[in-house]
């Protein structure tokens, strides 16, 4: 027997069909679109010059959609690739310059999509088994993926129309494998299972049914801890700790007793981590706007500094809108008890809609830039 490469027509399963591929493509287009849009929002929330302060759960929702749409895209992408992979064996390999470009962009799309989904999943598991910085790389490749997706959709528009326009129909008698309907139903089931299995990390009423909700599972003082004081290199905080508030023309140091003596506000606010988990706590502390007023500092943009000496999240910026917001607290207490060291003792920033990475713990300095 002579070995030969298969041909496209050798793949006879009914699900290798443009009607299946187009429907999966539509679902993937929606999930990738959601993932891209919410990814841009997350980028703006961390690096932008404006960010809304309401609704309080804004980032919790957009980042939940970001991570969950990425997770749902995994089974959809695998099913879509399986549906169309016989096209790899179509001959001739290249029919025209246009065809070569279209195939090349498809290669870029698949590579970029795998890269985004894999790095995103690793990030949500807080694992970084690579040497490049996650945030700028994930952000840059997102543009590559969305660009290649746009080209792919434009090139395939006639086929997409054709595939979506035709009913799934019945498979020919004797055709092997799952029917077109069966294949789509199985893929849909896998996508919903992936969603339910992970959504409990951020959707409270799924905590119980979601086996992978461990990230949001209760931690000490009723809230998970992402980075412990030990991991951040923050040792015991002694009585010599001071909060330094500075502004052009002035500086003021406060000890913890002075912070406790200022008027306190209690608010229920979520921490929404970029990794896709979120959890709500009740925080008590000083409204940052009141604190600035009490020491005679102007308002403006505030740079927050932590006791942590190294680490990407030792500083953050409070934009003017958040500095004015009365839900922006320098929290001293969580769920009715004093903040533990792991939760940011002696004080931490907690504000509405801020990405978790900017809810800075172990605060030591507030620098006002009017
Ligand atoms: N100084 C400092 N603050 C920090 C971090 C950090 O690494 N260093 N991690 C942030 C991240 S990523 C999140 S999600 C929240 C988590 O807060 P928690 O550990 O109190 O739950 O704290 C934020 N504050
Ligand atoms: Mo986080």
Automatic annotation (TrEMBL):
<keyword id="KW-0472">Membrane</keyword>
<dbReference type="InterPro" id="IPR000572">
    <property type="entry name" value="OxRdtase_Mopterin-bd_dom"/>
</dbReference>
<keyword id="KW-1133">Transmembrane helix</keyword>
<dbReference type="InterPro" id="IPR019546">
    <property type="entry name" value="TAT_signal_bac_arc"/>
</dbReference>
<protein>
    <submittedName>
        <fullName>Secreted protein</fullName>
    </submittedName>
</protein>
<feature type="transmembrane region" description="Helical">
    <location>
        <begin position="20"/>
        <end position="44"/>
    </location>
</feature>
<keyword id="KW-0812">Transmembrane</keyword>
<feature type="transmembrane region" description="Helical">
    <location>
        <begin position="183"/>
        <end position="207"/>
    </location>
</feature>
<feature type="transmembrane region" description="Helical">
    <location>
        <begin position="106"/>
        <end position="125"/>
    </location>
</feature>
<feature type="transmembrane region" description="Helical">
    <location>
        <begin position="64"/>
        <end position="85"/>
    </location>
</feature>
<dbReference type="Pfam" id="PF00174">
    <property type="entry name" value="Oxidored_molyb"/>
</dbReference>
<feature type="transmembrane region" description="Helical">
    <location>
        <begin position="137"/>
        <end position="155"/>
    </location>
</feature>
<feature type="domain" description="Oxidoreductase molybdopterin-binding">
    <location>
        <begin position="240"/>
        <end position="368"/>
    </location>
</feature>
<dbReference type="InterPro" id="IPR036374">
    <property type="entry name" value="OxRdtase_Mopterin-bd_sf"/>
</dbReference>
């Amino acid at each position: 027997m002579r070995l030969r490469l298969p041909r496209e027509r050798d793949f006879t399963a009914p699900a290798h069909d443009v009607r299946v591929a187009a429907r999966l493509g539509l679902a993937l287009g929606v999930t990738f679109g959601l993932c891209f849009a919410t990814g841009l929002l997350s980028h703006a929330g961390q690096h932008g010059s404006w960010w809304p302060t309401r609704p309080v759960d804004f980032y919790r929702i957009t980042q939940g959609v970001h991570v969950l749409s990425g997770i749902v895209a995994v089974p959809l992408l695998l099913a879509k690739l399986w549906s169309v992979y016989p096209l790899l064996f179509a001959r001739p390999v290249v029919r025209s310059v246009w065809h070569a470009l279209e195939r090349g962009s498809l290669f870029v799309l698949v590579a970029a999509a795998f890269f985004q989904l894999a790095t995103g999943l690793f990030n949500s598991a807080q694992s970084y088994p690579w040497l490049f910085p996650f945030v700028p790389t994930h952000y840059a490749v997102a543009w590559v993926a969305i660009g290649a997706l746009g080209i792919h959709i434009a090139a395939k528009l006639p086929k997409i129309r054709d595939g979506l326009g035709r009913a799934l129909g019945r498979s020919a008698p004797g055709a092997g494998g799952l029917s077109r309907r069966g294949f789509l139903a199985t893929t849909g089931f896998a996508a919903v299972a992936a969603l339910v299995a992970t959504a409990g990390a951020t959707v409270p009423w799924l905590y119980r049914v979601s086996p992978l909700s461990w990230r949001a599972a209760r931690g000490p003082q009723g809230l998970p801890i992402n980075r412990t004081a030990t991991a951040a290199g923050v040792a015991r905080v002694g009585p010599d700790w001071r909060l330094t508030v500075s502004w052009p023309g002035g500086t003021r140091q406060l000890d913890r007793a002075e912070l406790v003596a200022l008027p306190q506000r209690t608010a229920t606010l979520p921490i929404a981590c970029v990794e896709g988990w979120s959890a709500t706590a009740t925080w008590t502390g000083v409204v940052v706007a009141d604190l600035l007023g009490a020491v005679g500092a102007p308002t403006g943009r505030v740079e927050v500094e932590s006791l942590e000496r190294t680490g990407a999240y030792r500083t953050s910026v409070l934009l003017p809108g958040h500095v004015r917001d009365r839900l922006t607290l320098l929290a001293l207490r969580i769920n009715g008890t004093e903040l533990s060291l792991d939760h940011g003792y002696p004080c931490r920033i907690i504000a509405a809609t801020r990405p978790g990475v900017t809810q800075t713990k172990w605060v030591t300095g507030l620098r006002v830039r009017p």
